[in-house]
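User: I'll paste a sequence; please echo it back and then give the predicted structure.

Assistant: Echoing your sequence first, then the prediction.
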Amino acid sequence: MDQKEVSYLPMIVSGGDEMVKGDIWHEIHSRHRLKETKKSIARSLDLDVRTVRKILHQETPVKYRRKAAAAGMLQPWTDYLNQRVAAVGYCAQSLYEELRDRGYEGGYDTVRRFVKPLRQEARIDATLRFETPPGRQGQADWGQCWTVLGGKRSRVHLFVMTLGYSRRLFARGTLDEKLPSFISCHIDAFDHFGGIPHEMIYDNPKTVVLSRNFAGSSIEWNGTFWDFATYYGFRPRPHRPYRAQTKGKVESGVKYVKRFLRGKVFESLDHLNDALMNWIATVADQRVHGTTHRKPAEMFGEEQDLLIKHHGKPPYKIEQRALRQVARDCMVNFETNRYSVPFQYAGKQVEVQCAGDLVLIYHNKALLVSHPRCAGSYLNCIDRTHFSGIYQQAAFHRDHPADDVQVRDLAFYEGLVEGGAL
């Protein structure tokens, strides 16, 4: 098979009359909503085009149960067994006793063999693996792990993007999962791959989807993220709720990245990300993938030219800004942490911005100070030079006390009340 075509699990084709599982029903309807032609859908899923038309006319997936092969003695009872098997919890003994009361003369083992495949089918939530053609799809997700940054135990948020065809991945550690970080990680990933997949699969985070119905026919997108996707020309696609297997490739990638970070110590978040990129280039890209049995770097060569090119396009910018009032102790609250500013600005309004791992504080559009962004919550980031003026003023008042207040006898004030004069 040409490696640039979709690969798929073998399926039985019967001229348009085969039953289709719910996974394929959702896949067909999703692709049709994305304006893919019926012939293209049928060809990529190895279905008859008549089956695709039939499924598109179904409002919900058609459920079915495969009939188990029945022994000759059990043949008259198969309809009864199919109706009762779920009600009795797939208990062969219960069914055997019911059949005996109705005149069945066969043995228990015959009933047990009939029930066994039905019980297994009920327990296994079978899923189909849809392999995507080169350049078509990427998947992105977040993970979290604890590690040591600068001698402190810190929680790091891991952004991971995986290309669906080659399994080549990109990963970046951040301090949060907010929209500015989410978009920044996307841009870094696009630069790393040298292009953009035509569609991206996501869970349903608020940074992508504000609300949706179960089937996905009505989706309220996050306006900023939709504008970002439109700017770069890719199509976002949230997976069906409670169906995390839809983005199983990236979830496997998140676990893989976590294993690399386990037990390691880093000087800073930048150090972590430098080590992560080196590991991706020398290990993750060069390993033989367990599913494709090929190296991601090798397969990436087959899809690199099929990605959407974005070089020469100015980076999409989104700035995180907040107006804050400087407290009397010369500290500014931002993202549950506190940052110091020079004491002269106590009580004044400042603007706080995030720029990667830095927190920038402005007053009247002039930069006052920059701090490293705190890797945690309820922390204080203090530059003691900001308080040096306060210490000097305190020393001045200590060395230059105010003039003594004259002490008068109380009789002096009584005379004033009675009409006296100074």
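Residues 1-20, 66-70 have pLDDT under 50 and may be disordered. The chain has four domains: 1-64, 72-123, 137-306, 321-399.
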